[in-house]
Amino acid sequence: MKVEVKDVTKSYRSKTALANLTVAFEEDKIYGLLGRNGAGKTTLMQLLAGYTLPSSGEVLLNGETPFNNRNILKDICLINESENFKKRLKIKDVLKVASLFYPNWSQETAEYLLKQFNLEPNLKTKGLSKGMESSVGIVIGLASRAKITIFDEPYIGLDASARYKFYDILLEEYETYPRTIILSTHLIDEVSNLFEEVVILQNGKLLLQKDKDELVQLSLQVSGKSEVVDQFTKGKNVIHEAEIVGMKTVQLFGENYSSEEAISLGLQVERCNVQQLMVYLTEERGGK
Ligand SMILES: Nc1ncnc2c1ncn2[C@@H]1O[C@H](COP(=O)(O)OP(=O)(O)OP(=O)(O)O)[C@@H](O)[C@H]1O
């Protein structure tokens, strides 16, 4: 399913959450949707899932607007950080309701995942811990097999081992039944291995959209004696630097910087990771 966001602005009274945003998502890819607090990620995901309408511009899924469009919404599943299940229902009833909504629903996957997350289907959702609620959301998201599955910080309250279980199962599921997965997260280090493409929002605008490996290849981190580092980085696009007692570490971004020259100068060289790039590229001091 083709996802196009065309020149979308979304305002809440005086606040502009998204400003003339144009971005597209391809079929069957895992996207990392990243950005600082308030960058507009949740707003974008809610627009994609038809929860709300843009103030201007268009959100199109296979050429149709998702808002109030059952034909399209059956293929989109958005799991939020705070899923509000009807408290009277048992877990199995919540899953039943979801299964009626999503035509590709896999009951087998749902049952497998319940076991993986140690969820007893007869438990009422009323008494669930935060982590268990998150697990139910994850079960729904994965078992829906919706063509577009969106997770907005889905693991609040999940401990590290449950989160790693989620990442493993997500990848397994994706390999068996490819779909478009959009993952918004602040735990970038944990999740970035899953991303094929990275979309970074900043102040409601698109800062960059790139293949994850290409993104990392465009970066270079060099460390060593300050004067040698300065000699190497002169004229290059520095996105961050830190200096302690005559030693400097500098991150560069924007070109396929050759590591050979830096190594020949005796500098230590490595690529930046996605988390570093998100943080440094969105620093308000304009990158420097
Ligand atoms: N319902 C709303 N009413 C008023 N302002 C809102 C509303 N929803 C979002 N905003 C504002 O729009 C901006 C973008 O918010 P959004 O939740 O989309 O960002 P985000 O990137 O998901 O942030 P976070 O990482 O903190 O969850 C923020 O300034 C937020 O305060």
Structure overview:
- The chain is an alpha/beta fold.
- It has 2 domains: 3-203, Rossmann fold, CATH 3.40.50; 218-282.
- Helices cover 33% and strands 29% of the residues.
- It has 11 helices and 13 strands.
- It has helices at residues 41-48, 70-73, 91-101, 107-116, 130-143, 160-176, 188-191, 212-217, 226-233, 259-264, 274-281; strands spanning 3-12, 15-25, 30-34, 56-61, 76-79, 148-152, 180-184, 197-202, 205-211, 219-225, 238-244, 247-253, 268-270.
- Strand 1 and strand 2 form a beta hairpin.
- Helix 3 runs parallel beside helix 5.
- The two termini are 39 Å apart.
- The model has no long low-confidence stretch (mean pLDDT 93).
- Bound molecules: adenosine-5'-triphosphate (ATP).
